[in-house]
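Sample entry (58 residues):
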Amino acid sequence: MLVIGRKPGEYVMLDDDIMVKVVKSEDGHLRLAIDAPKDVKITRGELYEDQNNERITK
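Predicted structure, serialized as tokens:
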């Protein structure tokens, strides 16, 4: 796992087509903007965990 610090307005690139940008940071809360091709599936962490837990219990 890569852990880096970014300030609002700064971003990281994943390959050449996915940008993750910090758009707001205050009081320990962070807002990210993700620019990715439409065919890239993006799922929030809590939903991803719920989906995986459902698969395991079925």
